[in-house]
Design brief:
463 residues; 5-stranded mixed barrel; 13 helices; 24% strand; binds 4-amino-1,4-dioxobutan-2-aminium adenosine-5'-monophosphate; binds magnesium ion
Length: 463
């Protein structure tokens, strides 16, 4: 008989009375010499299905290998359950044991493991209720993102992961090379001879697909990327990963207001999608980790984001009288404590800050007439701080070139990017959403290492 997933069984009362087969991993087994109960989970939902073994039909010998973590297949009749905590259960007729799990060594015994402990067991943690829920929410959010953009007619553009240019100009890139590190080929001047390297020049893993995204937007009109990005910053925080996923829409003929409108509509759509499609997972996470989670999600959906300039934001921070760990004044990059103060204490709403000082933002942003600020926009969220960073782009060839030269960005890396401003240049805008920050927000988790299956952070690339 064909396997039916537990999520479907729990959602289909009409199946009661029929023969079904389920396959999954044992969460617990308990009972007595007359009857044994197994809680089975197959990863399709947070709920377990109860399997009842009548000990007139099964022997202790047969059941002794059914311990926590073992994988089994069971066929039998689905019946309404008398017991508390479940609506239906299977009366087992046949049992197949696929794999045992030695209780002496299987790390995930019953319950009560901390998230820290589970990070060390990232190869098995997807089998816990918590990580099952997080990973299903993550998957649904990824689908929602494609659905949102595809329904709007945006093209999904695949930008390269190996690149020769540093989009964000932060210099925090992982080099990609096949040169022998122990014996590097040198030029006559004693420098590394990259002409001998795989691509004939220095390359690195991308920090952003934006520059290539702009090439797509100035041809297809509206595009989005959705892929892994890499940052070699040594920031060990609950909000930074060395490898994270980013969504970067880029749109021709959008100014910064159009860009903000899209960003707000987009994140709200994703949150709504998760609430509508992952209700039991989100309820589970709320119950166990964050009682205010659902209220917070609804709150973001039901409120317009506050929009103000960086200059206005800094003024509020300077005058609020609060002592921050990092002092704040015009010109400083905002820290997460400042962003969260504006969102959580001052406005009590998500905030979009615009028009940052050009010195703390990337070279490609549209320069304002004041000569000091650029048309940047950061979306700031409760509990998270910056969730989106974006801008209107500098569309003027001369201004862009001047900024590139001012920052000493090597022109030989940038000629193709500048060509978008030489041929049919258009006003255009875009932004980047950090996927894991969105998953953090929607799941109510507090550490970004817990919302990606296999986190990469400084000193950690296990699994
Ligand atoms: O603000 P960032 O650096 O902007 C860009 O990369 C632009 N090229 C985006 C664009 O305009 N197309 O990064 C965008 C977002 C941040 O707001 C944050 O949510 C996330 O990416 N992010 C990280 N997430 C996890 N770990 C890190 N180390 C991150 N760095 C940025
Ligand atoms: Mg940013």
């Amino acid at each position: 008989m064909k396997r039916i997933k537990i999520a479907r069984i729990l959602a289909s009362p009409e199946l009661i009375g029929s023969e079904v087969c389920v396959k999954g991993w044992v969460r617990t087994r308990r009972g007595n010499k007359f009857v044994q109960f197994v809680a089975l989970n197959d990863g399709s939902c947070v709920g377990n299905l109860q399997i009842v073994f009548d000990m007139n039909k099964f022997s202790d010998e047969q059941l002794k290998e059914i311990t926590t973590g073992a994988s089994i297949g069971v066929c039998g009749k689905l019946v309404e359950s008398m017991g508390k905590g479940q609506t239906c259960e299977i009366q087992a007729e046949t049992l197949e044991i696929y794999g045992t799990a030695d209780p002496a060594t299987y790390p995930l015994q019953k319950k009560g493991h901390t998230l820290e402990f589970l990070r060390e067991k990232a190869h098995l943690r997807p089998r816990t209720n918590t990580f099952g829920a997080i990973l299903r929410v993550r998957s649904a959010l990824a689908f929602a993102i494609h659905k949102f953009f595809q329904e709007k007619g945006f093209a999904y553009l695949h930008t390269p992961l190996i690149t020769g240019s540093d989009c964000e100009g932060a210099g925090a890139m992982f080099q990609v090379t096949t040169l022998p590190l122990a014996k590097l080929p040198l030029t006559e001047n004693g420098e590394v001879d990259y002409s001998k390297d795989f691509f004939g020049k220095p390359t690195a893993l991308t920090v952003s697909g934006q520059l290539e995204g702009e090439l797509g937007a100035t041809a297809l009109g509206e595009i989005y990327t959705f892929g892994p990005t890499f940052r070699a910053e040594n920031s060990n925080t609950p909000r930074h990963l060395s490898e994270f996923w980013m969504i970067e829409p880029e749109m021709a003929f959008y100014d910064i207001t159009d860009n903000m409108d899209l960003a707000e509509e987009f994140v709200k759509y994703c949150i709504r999608y998760a609430l509508d499609n992952c209700r039991s997972d989100i309820e589970f996470l709320s119950e166990h980790f964050d009682k205010e989670l659902i209220g917070r999600l609804e709150f973001v959906l039901n409120n317009d984001f506050v929009r103000l300039t960086y200059t206005e934001g800094v003024k509020i921070l300077e005058e609020c009288g609060k002592k921050f760990e990092f002092p704040v004044h015009w010109g400083t990059d905002l820290q997460s404590e400042h962003e969260r103060y504006l969102v959580e204490q001052h406005f009590r709403k998500p905030v979009i800050l615009t028009d940052y000082p050009k010195e703390i933002k990337a070279f490609y942003m549209k320069q304002n007439a004041d000569g000091k600020t650029v048309r940047a926009m950061d979306v700031l969220f409760p509990n998270i701080g910056e969730i989106i960073g974006g801008s209107e782009r500098e569309a003027d060839y001369d201004k862009l070139l001047a900024r590139i030269e001012e920052l000493n960005i090597p022109m030989k890396d940038m000629w193709w990017y500048l060509d978008t401003r030489r041929y049919g240049s258009v006003p255009h805008s875009g932004f980047g959403l950090g996927f894991e920050r969105l998953v953090l927000f929607v799941t109510g988790m507090t550490n970004i290492r817990d919302v990606i299956p296999f986190p990469r952070t400084p000193n950690n690339a296990e699994f």
